[in-house]
Amino acid sequence: MNRTLILLSLPLTLGILACRRDVAPQATEAAPQASAQAAQAVGSTASGVVLETMDASNYTYVRFKVPSGELWAAGPQTQVAVGDKIEVSLEMPMAQFHSATLNRTFPAIYFTSRIVKQPATPAAH
């Protein structure tokens, strides 16, 4: 099991490191607070409703609503749409991550080995 997890997370880690080469430091007040909050949650999971999603290379980026606000996560390409409920394992927080592919800087983002789409709940009548 551990060997499989390591083998599955290796391409993600290498991809992140390759993307990080062109990151220029940016000073913002939100970054230290976002990275401190991110570091506290490492090892847990977060669930919420997808507000925004995009695919880049072999990754899916999702912005989703959680009780404390919103989070960004990126993981292996996963079929999700706005409005889907997801669960994300909070594994590797990064502050001021710049994606060259998306030409976008994320103040705080979690890189994860999994984005799990939750089953839809039936509507109450």
- Which CATH top level class fits? Mainly Beta
Oligomer: single chain
| CATH architecture classification | Beta Barrel
Strand count, sense and closure of the main sheet?
7 strands, mixed
Count of domains: 1
Radius of gyration: 15 Å
Q: How far is the N terminus from the C terminus? A: 43 Å
Please work out how many helical segments DSSP would assign: 2
Give the CATH superfamily. Answer: Nucleic acid-binding proteins
* Overall pLDDT metric: 76
- Sketch the topology as an H/E string, one letter per element: HHEEEEEEE
Q: Compute the number of strand runs.
A: 7
Please estimate the helix content. 10-25%
Q: Based on CA inertia axes, which overall geometry fits?
A: globular
Strand order of the largest sheet: 5-6-3-2-1-4-7
CATH topology: OB fold (Dihydrolipoamide Acetyltransferase, E2P)
Structure class? alpha+beta
Report the sheet-strand fraction. 35-45%
Q: Would you kindly provide a written description of the structure presented here, covering whatever features stand out?
A:
- Strands 5-6-3-2-1-4-7 form a seven-stranded mixed sheet.
- Strand 5 and strand 6 (104-111) form a beta hairpin.
- The protein starts with a helix and ends in an 8-residue tail after the last strand.
- By secondary structure, it is of the alpha+beta class.
- Helices cover 24% and strands 42% of the residues.
